Amino acid sequence: MKVQIISSSIRDGRDTHGIALFLKNWMDKNTDAETNIIDLKERNFPLFHERLSFMKEKHEGAVKFSKEIDEADAVIIVSPEYNGSFPASLKNVIDLLYAEWQKKPIGLAIASSGDMAGAQVTKDLQFLLYKIGAHVAKARFHVAHVGTAFKEDGSTENEEFYNKHAKSLWENLEWFIKANQ
Ligand SMILES: Cc1cc2nc3c(=O)[nH]c(=O)nc-3n(C[C@H](O)[C@H](O)[C@H](O)COP(=O)(O)O)c2cc1C
C-alpha cells in the first residue's frame, strides 16, 4: 500500500513541514504502508499554466507528480491556513491533474498559528477536492499554535495527543482505501 504526504508550505521558515515529518514517522511505525513525502518547497513547481494532460511539452516534475498521485492508495495533504484558506502552492499542483484525483482517498492535516487550528481551511479544501472527484476522509488532523506544536524534525511534546489523532485519520482513510478495492 502506498501513501503520499503532500507538504504544501513553500514559505521560508515554514512550521507545517514538521507535521508532514510527524505523520510520516507515525505511518512508518504504525502501518504497513510505504509512505513518502512530496515536499512542494523542494519540488519548486512553476506557476500553473496548463493541466498536465494538455501540456504540449510535459513538465518533468508534473509527470513525476502525476505518477506518484496515480499510484498512491491514499494521499495526506498537510496545509497551513493563509488568510482563511489554503496556500497557492497547493492549488497550483491540485489543478495540474484531474484523472489522477478520481476517487482518491485524501486525508487532511491542517494547521494555523491561532486557536482555531486552521478550521476555516477545511470548507475550501474539502469542496475543491470533492469538486475534482476525490474522496475526502471526514476525520482530520488539526494543529493549533503550529509554531510551537512541532519541532523541525517532526517531534512534539504532545505525542500522545497527536498519535491519537493520527490513528483516527488513518482509520478513516483506510476505510476509503478498502472501499476502492
Ligand atoms: C500569508 C499568511 C496568512 C495567514 N493567515 C492566517 C489566518 O488567516 N489564520 C490563522 O490562524 N493564521 C494565519 N497565518 C499563520 C499561519 O497559519 C502560520 O504562520 C503557519 O505556520 C503557516 O504555515 P507555514 O509556517 O508552514 O507556512 C497566516 C500566515 C501567512 C504567512
UniProtKB/TrEMBL annotation:
Domain called NADPH-dependent FMN reductase-like: residue spans: 1-144
Listed name of the protein: NAD(P)H-dependent oxidoreductase
InterPro entries: Flavoprotein-like_sf (IPR029039), FMN_Rdtase-like_dom (IPR005025), NAD(P)H-dep_reductase (IPR050712)
Any one of the GO CC terms: cytosol
Superkingdom field: Bacteria
Any one GO molecular function term: oxidoreductase activity
Gene3D superfamilies membership: 3.40.50.360
Pfam families recorded: FMN_red
Species, as recorded: Profundicola chukchiensis
